[in-house]
Amino acid sequence: MFVSSLRSNAFHPQSILRPLNRQVTPFKNPQRHIWFRRRPLYQPTTTFGRTYLVLRNLTLGVFTISLATFGAFYLLDARSAAHRYIFTPVLRLLTPDPEDAHRIAVLALKHGLHPKDNREDDPRLAVEVPFH
């Protein structure tokens, strides 16, 4: 009974691609639902509007890239406060057992997920070892 209710071309290879080739609108009025909207929310009609959109997108892009670059440099700096005041407390919250936290930290160090200290040390920290 179930097999007879299927169409004869249901197992044809083209029937798999058919939903991708045609536009399917489950509702009668697709403009009513916001997730079916196909036009942009704001389409400028004047030269000023187009220039505004270009400048806005350029500004947002530059801001996002600069923020990501600054964030990467900050997180890769060994002397940043994020390691002491953010990552360590989060690791303590996620792992109540100190041994598990230590294993995770060693694993991160093993795979190079640690900040690098690129600055030279203060010369006052130098130590001379006699007879060496």
Q: Helices and strands: which structural class? A: mainly alpha
Q: Give the number of helices.
A: 5
What is the alpha-carbon Rg in Å?
30 Å
Helix content: 40-55%
Which spans of ≥5 residues are poorly predicted at pLDDT below 50? none
| N to C succession of SSEs | HHHHH
Fraction in beta strands: under 5%
What would you say this structure looks like, in words?
- The protein has 132 residues and is mainly alpha-helical.
- The protein has 5 helices and no strands.
- It has helices spanning 2-5, 13-21, 47-76, 82-94, 98-110.
- The longest helix has 30 residues, at 47-76.
- The chain is elongated, with a radius of gyration of 30 Å.
Q: What's the gist of this structure?
A:
With 132 residues, this protein is mostly helical.
Summarize the topology.
Elements: H1 2-5, H2 13-21, H3 47-76, H4 82-94, H5 98-110
Key features of this structure:
single chain, 132 residues, mainly alpha, elongated
